[in-house]
Amino acid sequence: MNFDAPSVIRTKRDGGALSDAAIDWVIAAYTDGRVADEQMSALLMAIFLRGMTGAEITRWTTAMIASGERFDFGDLGRPLVDKHSTGGVGDKITIPLVPVVLACGAAVPQAAGRGLGHTGGTLDKLEAIPGFTAELSKNRIRQQLSDIGAAIFAAGDLAPADRKIYALRDITATTESLPLIASSVMSKKLAEGARSLVLDVKVGKGAFLKTEAESRELAATMVALGNDSGVPTRALLTDMNRPLGRAVGNAVEVVESLEVLAGGGPDDVVELTLALAAEMLDAAGLDGVDPAQTLRDGTAMDRFRALVAAQGGDLSAPLPIGAHSESVPAPTGGVMGDIDAMAVAMAAWRLGAGRAAPGHPVQFGAGVQIHRRPGESVAAGDALFTLYTDTPERLAPAIAELDGGWTVGPREPVIGPLIIDRIG
Length: 424
Ligand code: URA
Description:
single chain, Transferase, Pyrimidine Nucleoside Phosphorylase, Chain A, domain 3, Pyrimidine Nucleoside Phosphorylase, Chain A, domain 2, Aldehyde Oxidoreductase, domain 3, 3 domains, globular, Nuc_phospho_transferase, EC 2.4.2.4
């Protein structure tokens, strides 16, 4: 059947469902350049506004997988398990999590992403380590999985349609769409060769989908996509109203991850790392191992060092820190109230931790350090936040983003549980 982009866009614009053949055509044609960015942008906005049926999401995901390679590392004889987050603020969890599950006996082939919208990307954070590369060939991934059990890599030849669409969504205000998030995450994850999968689906102010109902639906959609494709999948629904930990940015998040791997670090980062590790180990059939022990005895840190070294990184070199900084002082004493994850994300983005246009470099040293977390005591004049950047003119707009995103008051804020539910 012959298709053309305007007819496909018109069908979705007018609230219709796209046929399997139309989806296969538009994804293949966009991947090889027959459909232009302007046309795909219009289609993405129509999908954003009109949504997709379950059948359309399944086909869109399958077509994105078919746009590239699908890895199979089953012959390595190791339990291959991975996790993916739907995007958060201060969400550095992959960095301590991968070495923890590795130290417990699982193997992790992880196709990771760069920053999207206001959220940070694991690759942007890890590339802050001098020398670290995420551009790995399939052979190198296979070799690394065989030698040390994990690789964290740019999706490259996996789901190349998602790579193009992901970049376009970032600049066309079409990131916050359930069908587009579900298909983006699952196309990469089903193509990367993991045999089971754990998803961290964020809920709240710093998540792409703000309400619990939407996040539940996203989780259920992705769990079904995984299970129906033969990859046992489950999800944790986790709170993203406030940033995770005390660091939001690139190198600052690596520093915090190293603290966790050394047996310290903020409670919430440790809690989520261990909860996701327990799910991954269970999914991989590795019960009876205690992930917390690997943080206490240094084995997770050893695995992280081996992983970074295998990917060219030098952890003995200093991590970059922005040359310019400014702190936000407490106007009065009291207790730190809640901190709005979106305000901190936007501040970090203004400092240069994220991108304003596709392909632009990020500042590895840009970020926000949170000195007082919700519920901690504050004296008047204490530094609450310190902002770092290499470009000093970014400091004032970043501080303005924080305005209204935090309070200091007489009472402790009421904070709900970090792990809200488990689905699948
Ligand atoms: N992570 C992805 O890979 N894609 C999204 O759309 C959101 C988070």
